[in-house]
């Protein structure tokens, strides 16, 4: 049940089932063909075992697909389902009106592309089922960048926290229910697991917020 009191269970279950079928039948078969097709057209995705990635995905035509709070809830439900299916960690995240940010660490031998394709396709199918739409929900392929240094990690981590503040959605980042900071402050698990100790040391203010919320 989401924050609006409406259940997306039927739409999500059907889309997860189709996402599983898509995962098994399409991704493996088309991976080589897709990579050959785009070779020379765009830069290959940089991948590295054990890396932390900053991932963003934007709605087709920059439409405000997440303006409805229920759609934000739906996307969070998809993230939870994805973590049950694949091994990966989310250090921080934010869902905005027409795009999402994730700081994601795929587990050993897990594919970032496979994880993100499943998340985005399952959400798109559920979204279209809810509204009776057809066609693309997401725009261009998702963007990803490896966090090459701890300084870069900290910069992007804080940028994700500040996104709703900079967009004038809330005055305090900790009040945005659809971000990692709010989930940490309220002990909500399933998407974020809490900061690892060495990362928490870089965010003393975040630690104070967690203490205040206890």
How many H/I helices? 7
- The percentage of residues in β strands lies in 5-15%
Supply the CATH architecture.
2-Layer Sandwich
The biggest sheet, with number of strands, parallel, antiparallel or mixed sense and barrel status, is: 4 strands, antiparallel
Q: How are the strands ordered across the major sheet?
A: 2-3-1-4
Which geometry do the CA atoms define?
A: globular
Query: What's the number of structural domains?
Result: 1
How does the helix and strand content classify structurally?
Answer: alpha+beta
CATH superfamily: Transposase IS200-like
Describe the structure.
The chain is α+β, with helices and mostly antiparallel strands and 214 residues long. A 4-stranded antiparallel β-sheet has the order 2-3-1-4, sandwiched between helices. It is globular, with a radius of gyration of 17 Å. Strand 2 (88-95) and strand 3 form a beta hairpin. The model is unreliable at 24-40 (pLDDT under 50). The protein has one domain (9-213): Alpha-Beta Plaits (2-Layer Sandwich), CATH 3.30.70.1290. The two termini are 25 Å apart. Helix content is 49%, strand content 12%. The chain contains 7 helices and 4 strands.
Give a quick precis of the structure.
By secondary structure, the protein is an alpha+beta fold. Helix content is about 50%, strand content about 10%.
Task: Produce the secondary structure layout.
Blueprint: H1 9-38, E1 53-58, H2 69-85, E2 88-95, E3 99-106, H3 112-131, E4 143-146, H4 150-166, H5 180-185, H6 197-200, H7 204-213
Antiparallel strand pairs: 1-3, 1-4, 2-3
Helix pairs in contact: 1-3, 2-3
